[in-house]
Amino acid sequence: MTPPIKRDKPWLMRTYSGHSSAKASNELYRTNLSKGQTGLSVAFDLPTQTGYDSDHPLARGEVGKVGVPIGNISDMAALFDQIPLGQMNTSMTINATAAWLLALYVAVAERQGATPAQLQGTTQNDILKEYLSRGTYIFPPQPSVRLITDIIAYTVKHIPKWNPTNICSYHLQEAGATPTQELAYALSTAIAILDAVRDSGQIGAEGFEQVVGRISFFVNAGIRFIEETCKMRAFGEMWDQLAQKRYGAQSEEMRRFRYGVQVNSLGLTEAQPENNVQRIVLEMLGVSLSKKARARAIQLPAWNEALGLPRPWDQQWALRMQQVLSFETDLLEYGDIFDGSPVIAAKVKSLVEGAMAEMARVQEQGGMVQAIESGYVKRQLVTSHTERMRAIERGDLKIVGLNCYRETEVSPLTGGVDSGIMKVDPRAEREQIERLNAFRAQRNATEVKAALANLTETARSGANIMPASILCAHAGVTTGEWSQTLRDIFGEYRAPTGIDIPANDDSRGARAVAIRSQVTQTGAELGRPLRLLIGKPGLDGHSNGAEQIAVKGRDVGFEIVYEGIRLTPEQIAKAALEEGVHLIGLSVLSGSHVEMVEDVFNQLDQVGLKGLPVVIGGIIPESDAALLKERGIAAVYTPKDIDMNGIMVDILNLIRKHHELPPVAAI
Amino acid sequence: MTRTALPEPAALAFAVSARDRLALAQALNLLDDRRPAARQCAAAFLEALPAEKQEGGGHLIGITGPPGAGKSSLTAALIQVWRRRGLKVAILAVDPSSPISGGALLGDRLRMHASGADREVFIRSLACRGEFGGLSAEVWPMSLAMLAAFDVVLVETVGVGQKEIDVSKMTDTTCFVAQPASGDSIQFLKAGIMEIPHVIVVNKEDIGMAARKTLSELKTTLGRRTDADGWQAPALSASAALGSGIEALADALDSHRQWLLERGQFAARRRRCQAEWLVKHLREEFGRYGINRLGGEAVLFAELTDAPRRSPIAAYDDLRIRILPQD
């Protein structure tokens, strides 16, 4: 009889999920756990992430869309109903309002009878990357760093098994970062945060090693899985050095690079979406093959993410991929299979060197916070992403089904309009607001007032924000109230858009030159240069598309007005009027496009711009696209529209049509 | 072609004076329109605007300074102060165009986002379109349209070195925003390359030492020097980030307006602005030759500042005809 083979313990398996309401999400979580999922990963809706109650005007259309709405302690209690928090490992993708959601989590755990010391999990709490990608920041950088610092200092003392911050290179890759940039900016962020914790004086020198040991990372894995393996090994080496040299961490345990992964969504295609299955599996290899650099926790996207919201079955499929890799294959039976490979070592070395050089440039500017405030980092990312998009457009970067091998049989998985995705029940928003009102009616107003007064004083004094927030949670404060209190003290912020980058070579290409001459010509016919307003209504902060259209538009000769993310429809209409634009391009990726378009049209009507051409880009299911066109949208663009020059010609012709000019020929 | 049909000038002027936002937007589009028929229409529109606003009303302010000095954030802070004082504010923000594509990213709205959804604040961005020394040719006519509907009209331009001060010739009051710890502006002032603005403000006083040092150097450089009219420019410091010094800055800008009014120079200043615009525009189109055809700069300025009020477009077309050889 052969002895049983010794296998490594598998990583934590999670699925990023949450939708509609706390109750519906709780049911989903319990089902997922029964299927062998070993941890939870909570997706919050955008109002919760940006600190608004469900009945705030800015929340309209967003409640329960990209995640679960958590407005107060009763929602949080419902979310974890029958899930013992003392034993669960919960990851929460929450940033600007991380202190608040952690406070609610602690308060619910206390009500369940668990002690803070038992709690295990992660708050993403990397607000700096929100200025660069994703966009759910609220406050200016300095108070944001203070909030991150407070959570770290609090958890190291009171919730020692908690990962207080997950420094994210994930979203940097989504915003276009190369592996070198991912390494450089994530580690520069870590430096900014650790320096801030050290300088806050909340943790003495003797306890600082513990702080270093609690820092974890959230990483992306793209399709180039050999390079991604090397990137992860580079991360490990660089972190070890940084922890030791800059922060004096002695123990190897405390210097270990601990990270979780969500594999890449950026490369998933809307065209032939079944191919995303093999992409996801290959990407998973990049963060699991090398034992030395293996992820602690993995969550995989669903194959149909580029089409709309995945269904439970789609998420189950993603979970099963992880289970097959860890339980069926022999991956977990070996030591590191790359040690000693000169090819891998050379690649790691070149990544480390490139990242060190970029980190030095960031430090020269005063550090990550300054390099974000000046717009430097964002411009670097927009430049990289622009290059990537141009490479796809030219066909140099091959994506099967998108820019090559496009011919396809009819897919049985997506047969029929919208059959392959889930739609959030439109009643979810109304019901959530009803629950919120009921909650407000039954709480003790005096206690709420006192808790908020205490929060105000704490925020002003500079003391740790966590105890006051936990008090607020128990008293029945709402997400909107907690956030507004801090908005009043810290102020709000708008991050640089990074689109002010030099024109690249493609803008000198024959096609771009030809389009530009038509844009100029049409401008002359209409009397003045053509102007576009690029608007991102709603709370969604995914700005890649808006940025790319803005840069491309400028490069073909349009004058572009772009004010960044999170505008109200009223602000968009106001800007369109004041700036005298010829066309509005909206970008919405949160699924709230129908409501947003309706509101924008209403506002345009009110300012006297009824009929101005409006186009929209985003993740928009076919049936919605038809509906939007019926309501007056001139064109709908989705991720499968990669021909940016073609979009520009399209926009030009829409403007011409509006002014009763004949279209220009295809360019 | 209903969408590009030209408006009726007198009705448009009436609506703009009645503070109709849509009308103002249309007027600005018209003033941007280069087609000959539109130009005629624009001239008639400007003629039809009420004279008192053009000659003696409102306050036209220029704000300029090197890139990164924080002009937009100071502007945003000033908007707040003026709104609290009950003043209605219009902004003309001039951004550079791309020299390659002719396209432009107009980013100032973003940096001034403080104005939100306030209907008493109106922001129009302009690309300088590679002409007129950093100041778009449309700025002066557009300023006149805005003055008909708003109490304060602020023109924000970016520039480096001497060109940045072009704006000072076409506004009632010019504010220069100095970058702390950068000696450039001081050098330009000392060397007389840059004309003295009416108000100098060192932004970012929150950074401390460097800002205080720049302020004291500026004060030394300015000494007791005055501009050609006898105004002595104050130097102040402020912080857009902290909101400090903004009230004092607004006061300083207003005191220059009061000073012009008290000395009866206000209307003359506006006429001078228009003369500057006309001469600059002529020089762009015809060079020194054109100016000489009209008797040289001194004669031309004297003629223009004495002439009765005309719309800038009509006045320009008259001068143009006098330069062009007649058949």
Concise structural overview:
The complex is a heterodimer of chains A (667) and B (327). Chain A is α/β, with parallel strands linked by helices and 667 residues long. Chain A is built from 24 helices and 15 strands.
Descriptors for this entry?
heterodimer; A: 667 residues; alpha/beta; TIM Barrel; Rossmann fold; 5-stranded parallel beta sheet; 24 helices; B: 327 residues; 7-stranded parallel beta sheet; 13 helices; globular
Rg calc of chain A = 25 Å
**Count of spatially separate domains of chain A:** 2
Spans of chain A with pLDDT under 50 lasting ≥5 residues? none
The major sheet of chain B is characterized as: 7 strands, parallel
| CATH architectural group of the largest domain in chain A | Alpha-Beta Barrel
How many strand units of chain A?
15
Report on this structure.
The complex is a heterodimer of chains A (667) and B (327). In chain A, helix 1 (22-34) links the parallel strand 2 and strand 3. Chain A starts with 11 loop residues before the first strand and ends in a 9-residue tail after the last helix. Chain A has 2 domains: 12-394, TIM Barrel, CATH 3.20.20; 505-658, Rossmann fold (3-Layer(aba) Sandwich), CATH 3.40.50.280. In chain A, strands 1-10-9-8-7 form a 5-stranded parallel beta sheet. A 5-stranded parallel beta sheet of chain A has the order 2-3-4-5-6, with helices on one face. Chain A has a 5-stranded parallel beta sheet with strand order 12-11-13-14-15, with helices on both faces. By secondary structure, chain A is an alpha/beta fold. Chain A is 49% helix and 9% strand. Chain B folds into 3 domains: 1-49, no CATH class; 53-262, Rossmann fold; 265-327. Chain B is built from 13 helices and 8 strands. Chain B has helices at 9-17, 21-32, 36-48, 51-56, 71-84, 108-111, 139-147, 184-190, 209-222, 246-262, 266-293, 297-306, 312-323; strands at residues 59-64, 89-95, 104-106, 121-127, 152-156, 173-178, 199-202, 235-237. In chain B, helix 8 (184-190) links the parallel strand 6 (173-178) and strand 7 (199-202). In chain B, helix 1 packs across helix 3 (36-48), helix 2 runs antiparallel to helix 7 and helix 11 packs across helix 12 (297-306). Classes of the chains: A alpha/beta (667), B alpha/beta (327). The A-B interface holds A 494, 497, 499-500, 503, 507-508, 516, 519-520, 524, 526-529, 550-551, 553-564, 568, 570-571, 574-575, 577-580, 607-609, 658-660 and B 1-4, 21-22, 25-26, 28-29, 32-35, 38, 97-98, 100-107, 109-111, 113, 116-117, 119, 122-125, 127, 129. Strand 12 (559-562) of chain A pairs parallel with strand 3 of chain B.
